[in-house]
Amino acid sequence: MVASKIEKSQLTELTIRGLGVIDSAEIEIGSGLTVITGETGAGKTMVLTALNLILGAKADPELIRNGEERLVVTGKFKLNGALTEKIEEVGAFLEDGELLISRTVNNGGKSKMILGGLATTATQVNSFGEELIEIHAQSSSIRLSKPAVQRELLDSYANHSDLMLGYEKEFQLFNENLKRIVQLRSQLQARDLEIAKIETLVKDYEKVAPKKDELTQVESEINKLGSVEELSSGIAKVLAIINSDDDSVISAINSGKKSLDSLSGKDLELDKLIEKFADFSYELGETSSGLERYLVSLEADPLRFDALQARKSELNAFIKKYGKGEDRELAFAGLIEEAKSAEIRLQDLRGGDVRLAEIEDENAAVFAKLQKAGWALSDSRTKFAKVLAAKITEELAHLAMPNSRIEIQVDSAEKDLVSSYSASGIDEVFFNFTSHKDGKMLALNKAASGGELSRVMLAIEVVLAANSPIGTYIFDEVDAGVGGKAAVEVGRRLALLSQSAQVVVVTHLAQVASWANSHLVVTKNESGSVTQSNISIVKESERKREIARLLSGQEDSVTAQQHAGELLDLVAQARTEMIG
After folding, report:
1. Do 198 and 123 reside in the same domain of the chain?
2. 112 and 212, same domain (yes or no)
């Protein structure tokens, strides 16, 4: 079930103001693999902090740069079609298919989020952010240890959304029926009282016979009839001004229209204005006539007014007796819906134990379908667990972990027990790991070090990237605890991942940085801050100097630069072989 390549979103620009050591910076990020390097404390990881804030992370005023009142971070994203529809549904604005997400945090800890010009919440942005960016730091790798996350990864690889949707449908139906059974059992214990209560509601409903939106309409007409004199007086004054015998507004405008008509045809620009004036004259005449008709129709109707007041009292009494909640309009609408469904509830109650048995039989049939859907999903998970484990193990070999193995264990609960079925199925999924050839398979979080967890996560992302909707992957500490050949292989797999998605990596290793399509260097100025001029794209000789610094700390060393050039050449050749 491998999906075809899907269109993905992409981070195109990141703007940072007043965050940590960064005074101001604007970073353009292209496709492929972007690496960010720099000396310790230069603010490289602030890029990840900024993105986390944009995606809805907790606002911490301690992140604000010393001396500043607030921090502001903004991300610009180019969206795919599916995300564009979701964003536009909430009312956000896109320009040329690009979305701006902005986050402001002030010294008082108050936070403001803007999604495409629309004020929103961190929770809502986070729901979209899950398809925009995946951020991997040490904490992200630790998250990988959770069984729920491991199950989600397996489901993502298996791409069996049809089986999952089918299961979820049966699970929802089964639980709705269970709730109905529990409710009916409870109600049957006080059946006579409940029947009497519902029958009273139905009787009063039929007596009052309320109509949808009637309360609003009644109150509106009461307001009109109660203001007849005020309405008549006001409209009469306006008509007197418009139609005065001595100084009629309409006469003056008609006179002006005749004067302008005599100038028609002499200038195109003036003709447009003459046409507008004529429309205005016509509209004023129509409005005046409309006001006259309305004035004639206005008539005090004490009997109708009294009848409406009585009807309003009747409706309010009905709402007071049976309505739920403080909002009268919502309570009124809810009563109408409740009365309409009362007959079904009465049938259930009057049917008693017979009806309960019928519903239980119906749910037994639904449970049979739920079992079938649950085991179909479980079988698919078991099948793809072996395939995914083999592919991850293969990737680990490429990441200089040749003796490491992943096994994916799918434990299924007892098929016949109702308690076995949850919203996600009947399975628990566990990723087991060993880093030794004949080592014992243990839970991933028990068997893998921090550095190994990072590489396992990278291996998984490389395998899943083709099917994943995520457009951008951010990595920090993915090269923790590695060096030499292993570091080169980490860089190679990051480059491979960047063929399926945009990848941004914060690194201190030359072996990783040498694989970049775009290389950003962050430096601090003499004041200890980072500004726009301190974040630069390095190419050719400048890049060779930075690679030399990463290799030996001696960017001016001729030998170090020779080693850097050799590394860049080897990687360029390897990248060509990998692509072609």
Report:
1. no
2. no
